[in-house]
Design a protein that fits this description.
The protein has helices spanning 85-93, 238-242, 479-483, and strands at residues 21-23, 28-30, 38-45, 63-71, 74-81, 122-126, 129-133, 140-142, 149-152, 169-170, 177-182, 191-197, 203-210, 221-222, 226-231, 234-235, 249-250, 256-262, 271-275, 280-290, 293-301, 323-331, 340-345, 364-369, 379-380, 384-385, 389-394, 400-405, 410-412, 416-418, 428-438, 441-450, 460-463, 474-478. The chain has 490 residues and is mostly beta strands. Strand 6 (122-126) and strand 7 form a beta hairpin. The structure holds fe (ii) ion (FE2). Fe (ii) ion binds at residues 166-167, 218, 282-283, 473. The site of fe (ii) ion has 6 residues, from strand 20.
């Protein structure tokens, strides 16, 4: 049997587990608020087979869907592989058939043309459906009750794009889902598809436009009237892929861009504004309008934070990387407007906004952060080092309102926010926290925090019987939404 590589991408918390398991009535220390009823879905990459590429990365791992189901103070956990075409082909062969991360030219001949997405990035919930997404392919629909895979999802045969982002934006008032896919026409095409699904999940518009270069577009943002596409100079190249090279290389001298269009308008109305050179971001907290001006708040870094996205001429050096929550603003009433960039808050990533604040002026949000004063990072995740604290950030002042610090050897995953029906109640945060026991052993727990007092002792701690792999993103689905779930043909 092939062995997993001895690299940070497969060691520490990144050690493959590959166990599908279920546990009912997990032990709860403290108590889970009775109002908490629903499911915390998480996307967890976990490579089912040792990779053919010794330099493979955690983000190539087969997608697993993890679910914490909470009801009446009790909690169950289940985790299952998403049965993508790729997972099925390799499961049958009992070994890896696909090659390098995002490079189809390195796949074995028998799987040429087979859908190679691993559906491992975000469990998206919209219009009663659970979709496991990764930006290099279409989503896979999963039955939210059984976690069985239904199949590749194309909105009932209506979606033309070959890809779908893992970062859709759902308008909290209209219930519409705004989405996009880059490389919509296939590997290394510059086409970006932008589409809207109505509150019932029906695709009501899909338009394509060309981006200025072949960049990775991981996230985008909406306001009440606009769709915003920030682009960064981490680029792909068809000839490089054909030669067996890496999918992405960051270009430190390349331009960044912000594309803005009316969200119900035509892609012909897209205006492009040039941003700072060489910067990078993967996640945007939120966007909103203030008069004629649109703002987008970005977890911006001075270079790409993924070491494997750097070429030999620009090796990654974490000591020189800078970052901070950065607001990009454009006055759309000014025909000669330029992009204004201002650091407004601390560094960090994997931001979590209240669902109800999406696209609107907002006051605060939560995000994990790495603070070197706490101690060295736990090895894990796609960057190879984990976040070691959780921040509650006030965007009106740029100050940290509150922080959860649990000491060294602790890794934070992205939280979800659960709203309360009680007026004035801030709701709760749910997050998985991993503890390093030694370099090869970890334990994981789910914590329930008060959203407005994250540094207070957790209301509930659920210690997991098995360690968990680092998640990418998660999604909270209420009990009422689960009860109205749709599965299969529209
Ligand atoms: Fe993401």
């Amino acid at each position: 049997m092939a062995k997993y590589p001895d690299t940070v991408q497969f060691n520490g918390l990144n050690r493959p587990i590959g166990i599908e398991w279920s546990a009912r009535n997990l032990e709860v220390q403290g108590s889970i608020p009775a109002e908490l009823d629903g499911a915390f879905f998480r996307a967890v990459p976990d490579p089912a087979h040792a990779p053919r590429d010794p330099a493979d990365i955690a983000l190539s791992g087969d997608g697993m869907v993890s679910r914490f189901r909470i009801s009446n103070g009790a909690i169950d956990h289940d985790i299952r592989y998403v049965h993508t075409a790729r997972y099925e082909a390799e499961r049958k062969a009992r070994h890896a058939l696909f090659g390098k991360y995002r490079n189809p030219f390195t796949d074995l001949p028998q799987v040429q043309g087979v859908d190679r997405t691993v559906a491992n990035t975000t469990p998206v919930w919209h219009a009663g459906r659970l979709l496991m997404t990764k930006e290099d392919g279409r989503a896979y629909e999963v039955n939210p009750h059984t976690l069985e895979t239904v199949g590749s999802y194309d909105f009932g045969g209506t979606l033309r794009s070959q890809t779908m982002t893992a970062h859709v934006r759902v308008d909290p008032v209209t219930g519409e889902m705004f989405s996009f896919g880059y490389e919509a026409g296939g590997t290394c095409t510059d086409q970006v598809a932008y589409w809207i699904a109505d509150k019932n999940g029906k695709l009501v518009s899909e338009q394509w436009f060309s981006q200025p270069y072949l960049s990775t577009i991981h996230d985008f943002a909406i306001t009440e009237d606009y769709a915003l596409f920030p682009l960064f100079p981490t680029l792909t190249d068809l000839d490089r892929l054909k030669a067996g090279g890496d999918k992405w290389i960051h270009e430190p001298d390349g331009d960044s861009w912000l594309g803005v269009m009316p969200r119900y308008g035509s892609v012909d109305q897209l205006r492009w504004f040039k941003g700072p050179k060489g910067v990078s971001a993967f996640h945007f907290v939120n966007a909103f309008q203030q008069g004629h001006t649109v703002h987008v708040d970005i977890c911006l870094t001075s270079t790409n934070a993924f070491p494997f996205m750097h070429g030999p001429d620009d090796p990654f050096d974490p000591r020189t990387m800078k970052g901070g929550l950065t607001r990009w603003s454009v006055d759309l009433a000014d025909p000669a407007a330029t992009l204004q960039s201002q650091v407004i808050g601390p560094p960090g990533d994997l931001p979590r906004l209240r669902d109800g604040d999406q696209g609107r002026a907002y006051t605060d949000f939560w995000m994990p952060c790495y603070d070197p004063r706490i101690g060295p990072p736990v090895v894990g995740g796609p960057v190879g080092s984990c976040f070691n604290c959780l921040l509650h950030v006030d965007v009106t002042t740029g100050q940290v309102k509150d922080a959860l610090v649990l000491g060294p050897g602790v890794a934070f995953n992205e939280p979800v926010h659960v709203p309360s029906a009680t007026p004035g109640h801030a709701g709760w945060l749910l997050a998985v926290i991993d503890y390093e026991l030694d370099s090869e052993h970890h334990r994981s727990e789910l914590v329930v925090l008060q959203a407005d007092r994250i540094s207070a002792p957790p209301l509930a701690v659920i210690k997991m019987p098995l360690a968990l792999r680092p998640q990418v993103h998660g999604w909270w689905v209420s009990g009422a939404q689960l009860a109205a779930a749709k599965v299969g043909a529209p």
